[in-house]
UniProtKB/TrEMBL annotation, chains A, B:
<dbReference type="InterPro" id="IPR036388">
    <property type="entry name" value="WH-like_DNA-bd_sf"/>
</dbReference>
<protein>
    <submittedName>
        <fullName>Transcriptional regulator</fullName>
    </submittedName>
</protein>
<dbReference type="InterPro" id="IPR036390">
    <property type="entry name" value="WH_DNA-bd_sf"/>
</dbReference>
<comment type="similarity">
    <text>Belongs to the ROK (NagC/XylR) family.</text>
</comment>
<dbReference type="InterPro" id="IPR049874">
    <property type="entry name" value="ROK_cs"/>
</dbReference>
<dbReference type="InterPro" id="IPR043129">
    <property type="entry name" value="ATPase_NBD"/>
</dbReference>
<dbReference type="Pfam" id="PF00480">
    <property type="entry name" value="ROK"/>
</dbReference>
<dbReference type="InterPro" id="IPR000600">
    <property type="entry name" value="ROK"/>
</dbReference>
<dbReference type="Pfam" id="PF13412">
    <property type="entry name" value="HTH_24"/>
</dbReference>
Length: 359, 359
DNA sequence: CTACTTTCGCAACGCTGTTGCCAAAGTGCA
DNA sequence: TGCACTTTGGCAACAGCGTTGCGAAAGTAG
């Protein structure tokens, strides 16, 4: 509920243009194309791009072949005009990346860590790993993004009860890190970070990013925006109940997807794990009418095909039941590999520049 | 992905002010209060409200007691400056209402109908019932909104496979009605219409509106906006699977909430029906982190207390498991009674005036 | 070389919300 | 009653946004 004024309009349009420049990548994009895609007049685009070039965020990059008249000048984002550090803080390891405006990773670090060693030790390890990258970012560093196991409070950057490590409940990770590093810090759930990274990376529309590793979580992107919900706790996919009065879960409930899935994995029954995951994905797809399901996390990485096949089978069946009008929802392995969360965490700071209200 | 210009900014701010006027109701609201709530300057608000008064949409309505200076002039929405007709098209009955800008119902009609009698007969019944109301709306009529059983295509106003009446699959309800009535028509799922009505009626934030009647559907409001999903099919709550390999559902799957719930109702076990509904609501609440669950529909209306109690019990347990930081999600009966869907359907045309992108 | 197309910037413009200022209409106190 | 003060709200000038009108630049086509 905010009123709009001229500066707001200007920054909106600037972000729009900047996002198109980013999406265009190395190939670049012409002013007229920018005008068409934004709905603005060519003259407005010229003014906006002139400002961006003055600020060093954009640059001319050659010309395109003529189509019968004056050849178009290609504009490009200047990637190193801004940087962000992204960190994945997992239960047993730490990953950090330094990325440029266009998402390119220019440095990466990795370390082992034990959450059980206490907040002070973990914080020290993060600062050590990220400190160097922060320095390399220099003046153009926008800040540090952290993806951590949920649930947590994204707005305030406070951890909640991390499964297996209850002592972190209420730990103000964001403020502690911001003080030590001296730069802005944003904290989000690892699955949300991964989802944001994929959304910025080109997955349009609405999709779910399911991460199966030591736990099971979901990042939901609805209409190009990460959906976090009222208390930023959305995406509790692991504890969706799909079997009334089923086997007990460590969360205290019964028949949770996570419990069924991890148990099946533990006894080597990948097909059943995939089927359970598929039922959960199918529920989610029906409820939210999403376009795509992406699977990620260590367990998936260890055996991608059977999981993709199993989940797809359940979704196909749903589509078949819905008749001719129902479309099968594609299932894929989330790109990005084991750095997906860290890269997405960096986007927590970069994305707002491009008009994505996910910061 | 649209560029903003001055007219867009103007209509945004106008809608903002208009929505606050509507929300303020009979009590009205002062210019300075509007300025505070929108973030605009008092001068901008003065200009905007002057325009609204010229157009007849707003009017001055007395003064407020002084707080030490010049007393504030109270502004009010002029309710009959605009009208919309809302229709609930159910499997066996028809309801229509004529509502004013502020949501007040100024006329209501009811009729019995049999979907099985064929599209032509049903269309005729709708035209007969709504025609009179459309005329009463006169020049100020914005159009007709229809809430029908899902699934359907909101964007194109085309019905899909209505459970029990497969012959309607592909029926272009919107265009057929628009031609007969000669006014704009918008079609949406009944549960979405009900949810929109509640959102406009004052339920803020994010909530789910679950309708249990001849079927079971959900309307999802996420961040003050009805969430319809990529193919406007979101809210397929009834066929969420909560019991792997459970009893077969008429949809072809097994263990759907709808099947379990309706079976429990059929055998008189309301407590079990409420528990199943509660598990579904709990899944939904965890996945989307919503603020509130509202229950509606005939079956709920017949026995509200046990359903509310049963659903609340499941949600309470989830909150307890999540520990101190988890908040219990309140459960209530959806206000609006048996006209909730029709009134919400009218809002399909009124809401866009107030900046709600649900039209 | 001429005609045409396409790109793109300069200058004037219209319209937005903002700022500076002042009048109006109350309260509170001497 | 009179003066000081607070709050409301409009008038006028203003800055800044995208838009429009127009012309220069830089190609292709014949």
């Amino acid at each position: 509920m905010a009123g709009a004024n001229l500066p707001a309009m200007r920054s909106h349009n600037t972000a729009l243009v900047l996002d198109l420049l980013r999406t265009a990548g190395e190939g670049g994009i012409s002013r007229l194309e920018l005008a068409e895609r934004t709905g603005l007049t060519p003259q407005a685009v010229s003014k906006i791009t002139a400002r961006l070039r003055e600020e060093g965020l954009a640059a001319e990059a050659g010309r395109r072949a003529s189509t019968g008249g004056k050849p178009a000048t290609v504009l490009r984002l200047v990637p190193d005009a801004g940087h962000a550090v992204g960190i994945q803080l997992d239960r047993d390891e730490l990953r950090a990346v330094l990325v440029e405006l266009d998402g390119t990773v220019v440095a990466a670090r990795h370390a082992e860590v034990d959450l059980g060693a206490g907040a002070e030790a973990v914080l020290g390890a993060v600062v050590e790993l990220a400190g160097e990258l922060v320095e390399r970012g220099g003046d153009t560093l926008l800040g540090v993004g952290v993806g951590a196991p949920g649930p947590l409070d994204h707005t305030h950057g406070v951890l909640h009860r991390v499964t297996g490590f209850p002592e972190y409940d209420g730990f103000p990770l964001r403020d502690a890190l911001a003080e030590r590093l001296g730069v802005p810090v944003v904290v989000d759930k690892d699955s949300n970070a991964a989802a944001l990274g994929l959304a910025v990376g080109g997955e349009g529309g609405s999709f779910a990013c399911l991460l199966l590793g030591t736990g099971l979580g979901a990042g939901l992107v609805i209409g190009d925006t990460v959906h976090r919900g009222a208390r930023t706790g959305a995406g509790e996919f692991g504890h969706q109940v799909v079997q009334l009065d089923g086997p007990p879960c460590h969360c205290g409930d019964r028949g949770c997807i996570e419990a069924l899935c991890l148990a099946a994995v533990a006894r080597g029954d990948v097909a059943e794990a995939a089927r359970v995951l598929g039922v959960g994905a199918s529920n989610l797809a029906g409820l939210l009418d999403i376009d795509l399901v992406l699977l990620g996390g260590r367990t998936i990485a260890a055996a991608p095909e059977p999981f993709v096949r199993g989940v797809a089978a359940v979704l196909d069946e749903r589509a078949r039941r819905e008749g001719g009008l129902g479309t099968t929802i594609p299932v894929r392995v989330a790109p990005g590999g084991d750095r997906g969360v860290a890269e997405g965490a960096a986007q927590l700071l970069l994305a707002p520049l491009f008009g994505r209200a996910d910061g």
